[in-house]
Design a protein that fits this description.
Structural class: alpha+beta
Radius of gyration: 18 Å
Distance between the termini: 26 Å
Number of helices: 7
Number of domains: 2
CATH topology of the largest domain: Glutaredoxin
Helix content: 40-55%
CATH class of the largest domain: Alpha Beta
Strand content: 5-15%
CATH architecture of the largest domain: 3-Layer(aba) Sandwich
Keywords: 2Fe-2S, Iron, Iron-sulfur, Metal-binding
GO molecular function: 2 iron, 2 sulfur cluster binding; metal ion binding; oxidoreductase activity
Shape: elongated
Cofactor: [2Fe-2S] cluster
Number of strands: 5
Catalytic activity: a quinone + NADH + 5 H(+)(in) = a quinol + NAD(+) + 4 H(+)(out)
Order of helices and strands: HHHHEHHEEEEH
CATH superfamily of the largest domain: Glutaredoxin
Family: Belongs to the complex I 24 kDa subunit family.
Mean pLDDT: 94
Length: about 160
């Protein structure tokens, strides 16, 4: 995880102050911090914990439980490939292998040029259109090898 600068810490405190009166504010605060910085900076966990009167371990536990929270900034483009059973049955494993080879990264990694982050996801709700992917927040069904090659070309891989 990256360190939090003083300016970032001030912003995290402001986010906490804005949301602290919400019922169950931890998840909305984490989402807002990630929206602001593109990830959850390491020092933000302690700041959030203090503001919510929680332990840092409790905040870290929540942030690390949910796969959408990042410890480092994602690449310019994020490609998520469904790894759930329906998609696996329709070729998602081979699709994932194809993309990992093409990008020269493993799951949850970003290319060296910081252009693309590849993430596994477990169910996009497109089981009838398997295998499914999500590219920069847009779901794509029936992703073939050729369709994925076109997607990779579109994002500059």
């Amino acid at each position: 995880m990256s360190e939090t600068t003083k300016d970032q810490n001030v912003r995290v405190e402001a986010i906490c102050d804005q949301m602290i009166t919400m019922e169950g504010p931890l998840l909305p605060i984490l989402h807002e911090v990630q929206e602001e910085f593109g990830h959850i900076p390491e020092g933000a966990l302690q700041t959030i914990a203090k503001k919510l009167n929680l332990s840092r371990a409790e905040v870290h536990g929540v942030a690390s439980f949910y796969h959408d929270f990042r410890e480092e900034k994602a690449g310019k483009h994020v490609i998520k490939i469904c790894r759930a059973e329906a998609c696996q049955a329709m070729g998602a494993d081979a699709l994932g292998d194809q993309v990992r080879r093409h990008l020269k990264v493993d799951w949850s990694q970003t290319t060296s040029d910081r252009k693309i982050t590849l993430e596994p996801v477990f169910c996009l709700g497109l089981c009838a259109c398997a295998p499914a992917a999500m590219v920069d927040g847009k779901v794509v069904g029936r992703v073939t090898r050729d369709r994925m090659n076109r997607i990779l070309d579109e994002v500059g891989a």
